[in-house]
Amino acid sequence: MAGDLLDNKGRGDASWSWPAIHPEGRKFGVLAVGISLFFLLLLDWEIIGWPLLLLSAGVFAFFRDPERVVPQDEHAIVSPADGLISLIAEVDPPQELMIDDGTGNAGMPVGKVTRVSIFMSVFDVHINRSPIAGTIQRIVYIPGSFMDAGLDKASEENERQHILIERMDGTQVGFTQIAGLIARRIVPFVKPGDTVGAGQRVGLIRFGSRVDVYLPAGTGSKVLLGQSVIAGETVLAEIGTQKLIEGVAQ
């Protein structure tokens, strides 16, 4: 199905398939299987070997990389991550996304914008995708602590990586990959100057984390607090649209 065009009129051909395992995770899965077989076959310690074998399956599942159907709408900002909308707030963008970085590329303008935070549990897909089509203007990695990614202050204190993307019309969307209690490595797939499409894979965070999205000024969230979202598919916002949307948990 990769690369196929599907629409809301029923055109196209969709079918289910097993998700691929991203190459970044294959080495961890193979290592876990090897350790499991060592305990099972060489030491005959089944009480340890079988749980480790189940853990190996979990490692492969964590690094799964399913295909996604990305909306082709120039106004849409799609979710960069799978997970739960844990925070929505009006904030100033991080300094790293606003200040002059010396490259001549302007950062996000000063002023409050809507920040949408997506919490990724260990059960979610951890491949992150670009929220818009455009050019990677900057990537800024910041070392930090590993507190609970669900806390608001994790945006400023945890290990994190800021990415700023700019469309051809100058519209900018910034987002931040934030490590959590278990996550210990942020892995980028892109670099400044790269051109990306909406929904294109741009990186991953190992083992539980959070992604903050900073919407352009004058743009509000179309998702609700507590809603589950899917990377590359769920529309977080429409550029230039800002209105109150309410929902009921049931």
UniProtKB/TrEMBL annotation:
Binds 1 pyruvoyl group covalently per subunit. The record marks G208, S209 as: Cleavage (non-hydrolytic). Is synthesized initially as an inactive proenzyme. Formation of the active enzyme involves a self-maturation process in which the active site pyruvoyl group is generated from an internal serine residue via an autocatalytic post-translational modification. Two non-identical subunits are generated from the proenzyme in this reaction, and the pyruvate is formed at the N-terminus of the alpha chain, which is derived from the carboxyl end of the proenzyme. It holds the Pfam family PS_Dcarbxylase. Coiled coil: none annotated. GO terms for biological process: phosphatidylethanolamine biosynthetic process. The keyword DNA-binding does not apply. Its EC number is 4.1.1.65. It catalyses: a 1,2-diacyl-sn-glycero-3-phospho-L-serine + H(+) = a 1,2-diacyl-sn-glycero-3-phosphoethanolamine + CO2. The chain crosses the membrane at residues 30-63. Pathway: Phospholipid metabolism; phosphatidylethanolamine biosynthesis; phosphatidylethanolamine from CDP-diacylglycerol: step 2/2. One of its GO terms (cellular component) is plasma membrane. Keywords: Cell membrane, Decarboxylase, Lipid biosynthesis, Lipid metabolism, Lyase, Membrane, Phospholipid biosynthesis, Phospholipid metabolism, Pyruvate, Transmembrane, Transmembrane helix, Zymogen. Its cofactor is pyruvate. The modification Pyruvic acid (Ser) is found at S209. It comes from the Bacteria. Catalyzes the formation of phosphatidylethanolamine (PtdEtn) from phosphatidylserine (PtdSer). Belongs to the phosphatidylserine decarboxylase family. PSD-A subfamily. This is Phosphatidylserine decarboxylase proenzyme. The lineage of its organism: Bacteria, Pseudomonadati, Pseudomonadota, Alphaproteobacteria, Sphingomonadales.
